[in-house]
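Protein Entry — a single chain follows
Fields — amino acid sequence, structure tokens
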Amino acid sequence: MFGEFFKSVDPKNILKNKIKNVMMKKLIFLTLLCVSIVMLDKGNCQSQSSYQMEAVTEFSLGEAVGQVRAVPVNIDKEKSGLLLVYSKDKEIDPWNEMFYAPTDNLKFAMYNHNGELLWRKELEYGTINGVWFTPVYPFDLDSDGTEEIYFVKNTDSVHILSYDKLRLVALDSRNGETIGQWPWKKTVYGSNSAMFRNFIIGGYVEEEPVLITAQGTYGKMGLQAWNKGMKMRWDLLIPDDNKGARGSHMSPVLDINRDNVDEILWGERCISIDSGKYLFIADKDRYNGHSDVIQPTLDRSTQDWYLFTCRESGEDGSIQPRVVMFDDQGNRVWTDLEVGHMDMGWTAHVNSGEANVLAYTISRGDKVAGPDGFIRFDVKEYIYHALTGDKMELSFNVYNTIPVDINGDGYHEFISGLGEQADRNLYTVGGEAISYLGERAYVAMASKFMDLPGEQILCYYPNGDVKIWADKKAFDTPVARKRYRNPYYHSCQKLTAVGYNLSNLGGL
């Protein structure tokens, strides 16, 4: 007994016990520290089990649908809503080989975030369900706290391809009533594909709202700026032989030089919303073709903007890179591919360890469209480290995906929900399938449009069901909250019913 006692008080054992206790305390401290970090910024170490996807709002449009566009609307200073633009028809494209006569009237319906219908409006037959025929854009041009809903309307319900009867119309977002109507600028004459490429966009000059209307994509193009009261601010005509690129299917707005004046990116043309003058035309003397994608991309470490472009072709037949990253003054940073028809693309911020910003595009062969939707053939994916141009690979099918920060960590997951060839899964950057959003789920919007942590995904289904998906375990980190506060976030969030702007927010 005494031997055991003296053994326990041996100085060596006492020292060992002290060391053991200190190590145990350190281990406990480090464990608690890690738990705290995860709770404060849990997105940095998310795993598949960390997500809990749920349809937080569900409602029905009450009829079968072919295509639905969605955009958040500030109804007044206290209330916001979701505007849905839809019909039984799929997207109708103006190109002759893709155009078909509409079978259904276009409808507008405003819902609150609980899925309750606030108002519904059915348009006459001549106003076609297509982003190029009928862009729809909410904007508070008169600064009264209520966003008007601007769209292009064909006032001739018999001649569905009337050009002379196009009007810019403004609706009151509180009740759907018409509050203004003006002649639509007729800039382009020629093929239907050239004439019916319409855009409506908004930006700010020293906090003063300016509305932009625009026409054309491939040849001759025009942009007009309007002040409060629809008084013209400037009118820019771009002849078809003008040096520099044509337009894009995307139309992002940002303050690229941080002078409190927004610019619009019209393809590789960076245009001041204040004056209608160019800050620059990237590759002005090198390229005069059409880029499907123009995607502003922020380097978060330096706060510098870059511009990711994906090109269809060079119209003059010259060999030009099909993928180009420019800096914020229009200088080339890196290029890739000298052949191929590039189509679709995005950039996204990830926390994968290999690259912090990804860039994606596809090349394709033929494309068909009609009542069954868009189908692309011979698709090949290209993934890059966005800031260096280094080639990369991802372990899931990136085609038809949109970046979305579903868990609020400030980095993107990817929802495959565009078109007929999507698989309807939500993926991590590592390729884990987080959730399946249902058979034939189509994404109409992916951003933070509800008062919930993380971003949300609005999906529609052919039977007219609408579901808003969210991660019930989401937590908004400081990185995410900084994204939401950026003016670019607000500008591009309003563009989801204009052109092909669903993926713009991936660059932020």
Confidence is low (pLDDT under 50) at residues 1-48.
